[in-house]
Structure formats: structure tokens, C-alpha cells
Fold this sequence. Notes:
Layout: E1 3-7, H1 13-24, H2 28-37, E2 47-52, E3 61-70, E4 78-86, H3 95-109, E5 114-118, H4 121-125, E6 130-131, E7 137-138, E8 148-152, E9 162-165, H5 169-172
The structure holds coenzyme A (COA).
Residues 23-24, 82-86, 91-97, 119-120, 122-123 line the site of coenzyme A.
Amino acid sequence: MKVIIRQSEETDLMQILQIHRAAFGRDAESNLVKGLLSSSKKIRELSLVACRDDEPEVPLGHILLSSVRLTDSTSERVLALAPLAVLPAVQRAGIGSALIEASSDRANELGYSAIVVLGDGNYYGRFGFEVSCDFGIFPAFEVEKENFRLKTLASFDKTLKGIVIYPEIFNSV
Ligand SMILES: CC(C)(COP(=O)(O)OP(=O)(O)OC[C@H]1O[C@@H](n2cnc3c(N)ncnc32)[C@H](O)[C@@H]1OP(=O)(O)O)[C@@H](O)C(=O)NCCC(=O)NCCS
């Protein structure tokens, strides 16, 4: 299966929500995605879908990156990766990896400095996500430090510090 990655379109919404529902087995993540994609702060270039190249209109996986704030910085150059999901029937075929790589590349091209993620440290470690606390960038909630990761991009600099504040919608779903 050859996979292409493209920016999501409004017409993909129902399938994107279905991917999150099926992958996570609950509604929380699809509700989050629905809220984030309808928000005025949505970054269009950083909502990506993966499709088979012979069926480019049918998303099989989706990734979303959103802007977050750091308490000790006025910068808006940090992103959070959340959520990422691949339809169960096509997992373990490299789609999740391709979405992470493509979204990191686009974030870099857009001039963002770093991406944080809450998730399995072993999985995200493969893609260059390091332990975030080691950079002085902390989660606002209790979590194993191994599982809150940060990927630095080309414009990262050490002045970026503080506690990560996610958009309010993350607290309400
Ligand atoms: C996590 C997820 C996006 C990975 O997508 P994928 O297309 O299957 O990933 P890839 O094929 O690129 O990589 C698969 C590798 O990742 C590993 N992997 C997959 N999910 C993992 C997880 N939750 N924790 C640790 N490792 C994981 C597998 O071991 C596999 O490696 P292997 O085949 O060498 O054993 C997908 O499994 C999924 O949608 N899961 C449910 C939702 C979820 O947990 N999302 C991530 C948190 S936001």
C-alpha cells in the first residue's frame, strides 16, 4: 500500500472523527478533534490525513498539531501533537510514523520551534521526541516524565521554558 499525506479538507471531517472513534474506542478524542477543527485558532496546514494513493479522498489516519502557550515565554512557536489515530484495520503499516514525520516537517517549514506530546515515550522517542522536562518545559498535569516529550525544530532556542498551557478545549472534552 502506497500512502500519501495531505492537508485535511472540510469534507474529510466525518471520516476523521470516525478514525479517532475507532482507534481510541471512545468519543473523547473525536470530540476534541471536532472542537479543535472548528476553532478559529486551527492551523490548517497542521491537520493532516493519510490516504492510499489510489484512494486519496478516503482518510485512513489523521494527526493534528495545535498551538500551545508556555508560562515563561510570550512565544507562540510551540505546538502540541494531539491526537494521532490510524484506523485499526490498517495499523502497523507505517501510517502513524508517516503522519508524525510529515507533520514535524511542515511545522518546521512554518517556523515553529518545538512540538510537545503526551504519549508513550518509547513510541515517540523513535521520532526524535526527547524528555520535555530536560529542556525546562513541563506539563501542567501529573505524568511520568518519560511520557511527556518534546521535539525541537530548527528554530528552537533555550529561552523557551515554562509550563505548557493547552487550549481550553483540551480541558472540556
Ligand atoms: C499509535 C498509532 C497512531 C500508531 O499508528 P500505526 O500506523 O500503527 O504506526 P506505525 O505502523 O507507523 O508504527 C507501528 C509501530 O509502533 C508501535 N506502536 C504502535 N502503537 C503504539 C503505542 N501505543 N505504544 C507504543 N508503541 C506503539 C508498534 O510497536 C509498531 O512497531 P512494530 O510494528 O515495529 O512492532 C495507532 O496504533 C493508533 O491509532 N492507536 C490508537 C490511538 C493512539 O493510541 N494514538 C496515540 C496517542 S495520541
